[in-house]
Structure formats: C-alpha cells, structure tokens
Amino acid sequence: MKLKQFINNNYFQGYAYSYPHKSAYRVLVNPRTLTDIWSTENKQNLFLYLHIPFCEMRCGFCNLFTIANPDNTLENPYINQIEKQALATKKALGETHFSRLAIGGGTPSFLSLKDLEKMFAIITDIMKVDIKKANASIETSPKTISIEKLALFKKTGITRVSIGIQSFILEETKALGRPQTVEVAKNALEMIKKSGVPEMNIDLIYGMASQTNATFQYSLEQAMSYQPTEIFLYPLYVRPLTGLGVKDKSWNDHRLELYRFGVNFLEQNNYEQISMRIFRRKDATQLDIGPYDSPTTAMVSLGVGARSYTKDFHYSSEYAVGRKGVKEIIHSYNDKTDTQFKDINFGTNLSVDEQKRRFIIKSLLEGQYLDFQAYKNYFNTNVLEDFTQLNELYEMDLVSKGNNKILQLNKKGLELSDVIGPWLYSNEVTEEMRKYELK
C-alpha cells in the first residue's frame, strides 16, 4: 500500500521498537537448543538484557510483560531462576563480549537491595559482563528508588538511570491510571541527580484527555529543571487488556498537536531531537561507550518476558498482558529445571526478507539513518532495489536531502515514525500479529 494511503490521517499506528513484535512469535514445532541457536552467531559485541516483571502498580496505559504487587510465590524464586538461566545460557554461548547492558521491566528497582546485589553478581560473575565498560542502563520508578539502591547502581557501574514520571500534574497521572504525588516524583529525581550516576532519563507521556499545551509545557519545564541528559516523549496508546483499554473510553485524540508542541519547546530549550521519542541535552557529555550497531547486534536476554535475537532467529517466553496470563507464565518460568533452560520452544525464524525489513526499520527509527553501503555489505544487495517503496519517502519529502549515501528521516518524517514502522512490516508478520490471541 502507498504510504499516503497507509497514513489515513492516523499518525499513531504502532511503536516499532523491535521487529518482528513478540505477537508474531509462535510455539515451535521443533524446539531448538541454545547451543544450536548461537553456534554461528558473532558473540563479540553482544547486548545483554535482563527483564524484571514486577511493579508496585500497573499503569493504566501499560502493556508490558509485568505484574503489580506480586506475592512471594512469584518474586522470591525469580532471581534464583535467572541464575539458573544465566548458567545454561553462558554455557551455550561460550566466549562472549557484552558491550551493552539494559535492565528493564516492569520496574527493576522494585527488587530489594539484596536481590539487586544478587542480580548484579549474576551479570558479572556468570555472564562475565564488565559493567563499568559497558553502556549500562536500568529502569526505575519514583516509589521504588532509594539512596541505597542508587549507591549500588553507581558502585556497580550503571551509567544511565531512567525513570518514568509521565506527568508532573496529579490529575493527569490519575487519568493514566498511575496516581503519584508530585512530591514523590520530585524526591526521586533529586536522589538520582545527587547519586553520581552519569546519565538520567525522564519519561513523559502526551495525549491524556485533560492535557493541554500549557499543562504539557509545565511538565516539560519541571523535567528540564533537573537537567536530565535525555527526555523521552511517549504518545499515549490505549491498548487491549490494559487498564485504560478495559475501560474503553474514547478521547479527543490531540497527540499530534501535543507532539509538535513538545518537539518545538524542547528544541528551543537546549534539547536535540534524536528520534520521535528521544531528546538529548545539547551540552550533555558524550560517554566513551564504544561502537554499537543496533541493526546488526545480537541480544541475549534473561528473565521471563524478555526477547533474544540472532541474525535469523528471535525467541522469548510466551507473551501476555493480562494479570492472569502474566502470572501463569511467571509461575511456569519459576518451575523450570536447569535442563529446561537449555531448550527454546517459542520464537520465529527470520527469512532474508524479514532480516532486511528489520535492518531498515531499526536504522530509520532509532535516531540514526539507513546506510546504503552498510546494508549492501550485510546483505549483498541494494536496498532501494529491494524495497522500491522507500522512494515514497523522498517523494513525500520525509527524508533529509543532499546525501545520496544514507536515508535519514527529517523532522516531518520523524513525526510519522509510528506509521512508517508498521508500513514496512511484511504481510506475513502483520497477519501473525493480528491472529495472536492475547492473554
């Protein structure tokens, strides 16, 4: 379909943070072993991800794999199971080098200090990650962060703490199904700012029914007062089985207006737009974190709900959003034996066509650009011949001009990121996502 038709006056069709989405994965007819999956992959520049599927509350907009206020039958055994999985994974991988580390969820800072210490020991002692030399990030929330946990992060070598604030106005956070006092949010930000961790990111959301340009500006000003290295602006999506999705309340969709306002305001106040969501302070110190190429770097993940991927195969645990479905999958993970962690039975094989689509999507939408020569080096074909539809980006004036070696979205193109991503999905992946029965 032509991009103009695909847009259909809807600039918010889906966040393509990875491709293909886990809803396109399926139970494998022939399960694979970790050793087989990783046998031919380059393991000298890997990304390690740990998923902690616990939160103190479930936000009304959240469709991540997490559960709020878990009982001890879920939380207590979980870190022990990550240790088992790490042992099986590292044995299958053999010699490795990890250049990136991310700990997400859920809310990793929900864990106790003792469990966080054990988690970091698994990362360093079993997975052999030199955290101080990796670009290491961890997710937090205002109610679960503490001075002691931040001191541990700093000591361990975490370089970036990300915190979800969403709004500095109580009525707006209530509308998101995430009531938090402004005092709690500000106390958390003060702790992070004083912790000595090099970088801080603040997440904000736009699109709530009661939000205006003026209230959005207030939240942006409050966020900027802490001089975060980055500010992420997320459009509100109301998805199935989330708190807001269950309520099924329609609202006046003014996300595009708010997005444009937020972009202009941040650019006028010393922040540079990197992607549709990422804004980085112009005078922020650039960390010496070594080379990293998202479209070609493989990811190894630990924990239930986390995805791993090689060049031609992606896998994870099964995917759910509802509390019952998530709880069942976590219980299943906590019951796994050492031997069972060696086998993978849920995932998807990527054809060469899907590998190319993934390369293009990640190159265009993650704040970089599509490098024609890098694509040719990787696939031995020409991208504009493989995907002639990309010429529509030129025709619609959505890319920067003057460099015939790369394809990079301009400001007009960036605001269409959540359309361009789904537009580039294959028909097969789109159909598998549509048919997935979400629990």
Explain how this protein is built.
By secondary structure, this protein is α/β, with parallel strands linked by helices. It folds into 2 domains: 33-281, TIM Barrel; 352-434, Arc Repressor Mutant, subunit A (Orthogonal Bundle). It has helices at 3-7, 34-38, 72-93, 113-126, 147-156, 170-175, 182-195, 213-224, 243-247, 255-267, 323-334, 352-365, 372-379, 383-386, 391-395, 411-414, 417-423, 427-435, and strands at residues 26-33, 46-52, 54-55, 67-68, 98-105, 135-140, 160-166, 199-206, 230-235, 271-273, 278-281, 299-302, 308-309, 313-315, 343-349, 370-371, 406-407. The relative contact order is 0.17.
From the structure above, extract its key features:
single chain, 439 residues, alpha/beta, TIM Barrel, Arc Repressor Mutant, subunit A, 2 domains, four-stranded antiparallel β-sheet, globular
| Beta-strand residue fraction | 15-25%
Strand order of the largest sheet: 10-11-9-8-7-6-5-2-12
CATH architecture tag of the largest domain:
Alpha-Beta Barrel
Oligomer: single chain
Helix content: 25-40%
What is the global morphology? globular
Number of domains: 2
Number of separate strands: 17
